Amino acid sequence: MVVDDHRLLAEALASALKLRGHRVLAAAAPAAGAAELVITRAPEVCLLGTATPAEPGIFDPVVKIKRERPQVAVLVLGPVPSPRGIAAAFAAGASGYVRHDERIEGVERAIMKARSGEAAVAPQLLQGAFSELLNPAAQPDDEGQRLLQMLTPREVEVLVRVADGEDTRLIAAGMGIAPSTARTHVQRVLMKLGVGSRLEAAALAARTGLLDRAGPVPHSAPDAGPGLEP
Q1: What region holds the Response regulatory domain (predicted)?
Q2: Which pLDDT belongs to residue 20?
Q3: Mean pLDDT on 157-169
Q4: Cα angle at 200 between 194 and 202, to 5 degrees?
Q5: Which of 21, 78, 155, 195 could form a disulfide with 200 if both were Cys (CB 3.0 to 4.6 A apart)?
Q6: What's the CA gap between 205 and 225, in Å, rounded?
Q7: Which phi and psi (to 5°) does residue 45 adopt?
Q8: pTM for the full model?
Q9: What distance in Å separates the CA atoms of residue 186 and residue 3, rounded to the nearest whole number?
Q10: Is residue 194 left, alpha or beta, with left meaning phi > 0 and alpha meaning psi from -120 to 50?
């Protein structure tokens, strides 16, 4: 059986497999009803297409199929996945993972492996999955999250405005506070971040991803008064 949210893809793959001598019980869409269809028809192999292998719960149909029809081998068809996407597919009970851009010969080899009880996945994909799971990359925004938790919401807004190049007068106008209060907030932000200047604070916030987490703030247009304070 071939199941994919894109009916055209499912039917095209089914036709190609038929031409190579395989008996295809059904080519169906969408993938949301895959589990019930597979459980009813009980094919030897199910080719299950997905566009988002890393999305939580995307392999729930695989879990259900393997629970109700453990003899059915499920091959996931998807894009170039993240290693965790491959791991999630196998954790759900899939027999293999085949990239959408694989040639029909590669799909056929994967089917044959799955029917014989072997894991059907390209060695480089499997190697990448094990490598990332055993040596997870450090999350670049961990420090940013830690710094963000040190600041009050008002101080976060001040930092974002500093990073946008606003001086004390503009910060005060944009937040509706006195310049002296804005200056105090800036000093507190510098102290909490452990930096000595506004430029250093802006650079640290950008490097750690703090600005992305904080989000944008509204800005006030400068008036036609005296030049900006340095």
Answers
A1: 1-115
A2: 93
A3: 91
A4: 105
A5: 195
A6: 30
A7: -135, 140
A8: 0.56
A9: 57
A10: left
Distances (CA, A) of 93 to 25, 30, 90, 100, 121: 21, 20, 5, 20, 13
- Residue whose entry in the numeric block shows the structure tokens 């950008």: 206
Burial of 40 (0-12, 13-18, 19+ CB in 10 A): exposed
Could you identify the residue written with the tokens 């939580």? 56
Nearest to 13 by CA among 122, 104, 92, 95: 104
Q: Where are the alpha helices (DSSP H) in 75-152?
A: 83-92, 104-115, 123-134, 142-150
What confidence score (pLDDT) does residue 133 get?
62
Q: What are the two backbone dihedrals, phi and then psi, of residue 173, each rounded to the nearest 5 degrees?
A: -65, -40
Is the separation of the CB atoms in 38 and 69 below 8 Å? yes
For residue 33, give the DSSP letter: G
d(CA 23, CA 70): 20
The single residue listed with the structure tokens 């650079």 is 203
How far, in Å, CA of 52 to CA of 58, rounded?
7
Give the position of tokens 């793959």.
13
Verify cis geometry, omega within 30 degrees of 0, for the bond prior to 226: no
Return all residues near 54 (Cβ < 8 A) that are at least 6 apart: 81, 82, 84, 85, 88
